[in-house]
Amino acid sequence: MEQVVGRSIHTVLQEASIIMVSLTKQIDDLAASARNSPNKRMQNNSLVTLAALHLASPALPIGGFAYSQGLEQAIEDRLVHDAQTAQIWIHDILMFSLAKQELVLWIGAHDAVSADDIQALDRINTEILSLRETREFRLESRQMGQSLAKLFPQWPEAQHFIQQLKAYPKTIALTYTAAFAAICAASKIPLELGLTSYLWGWAENQVVAAVKQIPLGQSAGQAILHELKKSIPEAIAIACNTPADELGSAAIGLAITSARHENQYSRLFRS
Q1: How confident is the model at residue 43 (pLDDT cuts 50, 70, 90)?
Q2: What's the pLDDT tens digit per position in 167-180?
Q3: Burial of 110 by CB count in 10 Å (0-12 exposed, 13-18 middle, 19+ buried)?
Q4: pLDDT at residue 215 in the model
Q5: What distance in Å separates the CA atoms of residue 12 and residue 214, rounded to the nearest whole number?
Q6: What is the CATH number of domain 68-261?
Q7: In whole angstroms, what is the distance from residue 118 CA to residue 154 CA?
Q8: What is the pLDDT of residue 3?
Q9: Which residues, 6+ apart, have CB-to-CB distance to 41 below 8 Å?
Q10: Does residue 102 sit in helix, strand or coil?
Q11: pTM for the complete prediction?
Q12: Which terminal residue of the chain, N or C, has fewer Cβ atoms less than 10 Å from its own Cβ?
């Protein structure tokens, strides 16, 4: 009798073990299916989009609101005096300066971080700063870049990149352009989406400066943004098709305006 009971218990345990193995496999299969399901992919895409929107948000505490990038001096000089001239000014900077120079370097920084090449990021960051024509432009690039870099620890996806920066032989004082591209790459934000986020944040900041300083109505400011939306994809296409050894801009008027702003008597903005 005891032998029969013993065999029965042993048989039950074997069967239970087989059932547990089967259930574990089914759970693993369901988990794998969920990870690859359309809903999960949609969720991942939404998180990436939200990360890009977060970076473009004016609520990001990096001090962008304090800079007009020479627009305030252009308004003082009456080069910009209404909605039409504001749109032309912002559009021309986008197409003739950012698209052909800064965005090309942005792409280089994004590619460097994506490839875990911190040395290349360091080189590109140095080049970005060297191309800032005035003291105010350099101040803006440094201050906003360092403010953004302070937020890196809040981004879970950026931890590997942070460790790489710490392991690098020297401290890299990231410019805003390089910092934005780097956090996009570290967060797996695709190149085009990251560039769109970067340019939209820049465009909004320029329009807000124009609305405050000219001044313009809120509706006029929105109308300018609607027009700029048409140019942003074109600017991105130009940057993506410009080889790194062919980048360059000759925004001499912008540089002169920025230099003159350093001595402007009364001003709201730091650049």
Answers
A1: low
A2: 999 999 999 999 99
A3: buried
A4: 93
A5: 84
A6: 1.10.4190.10
A7: 20
A8: 45
A9: none
A10: helix
A11: 0.84
A12: N
One-letter amino acid identity for 34? A
Contacts of 267 (CB under 8 A, 6+ apart): 72, 261
Lookup: tokens for 141? 């690039």
Structure tokens at 109: 């920084």
Alpha-carbon distance of 27 to 31, in angstroms, equals 6
Tokens, residue 144: 């906003």
Token output for 199: 């340019």
Amino acid identity, position 139: L
The answer on pLDDT for 38 being more than 70 is no
pLDDT in tens, 81-138: 999 999 999 999 999 999 999 999 999 999 999 999 999 999 999 999 999 999 999 9
- Contacts of 236-243 spanning 24+ positions with Cβ under 8 A: 236/99, 236/103, 236/192, 236/195, 236/196, 236/199, 238/95, 238/99, 238/100, 238/103, 239/98, 239/99, 239/100, 239/103, 239/104, 239/106, 239/107, 239/195, 240/107, 240/191, 240/192, 242/99, 242/100, 242/104
pLDDT(73) > 90:
yes
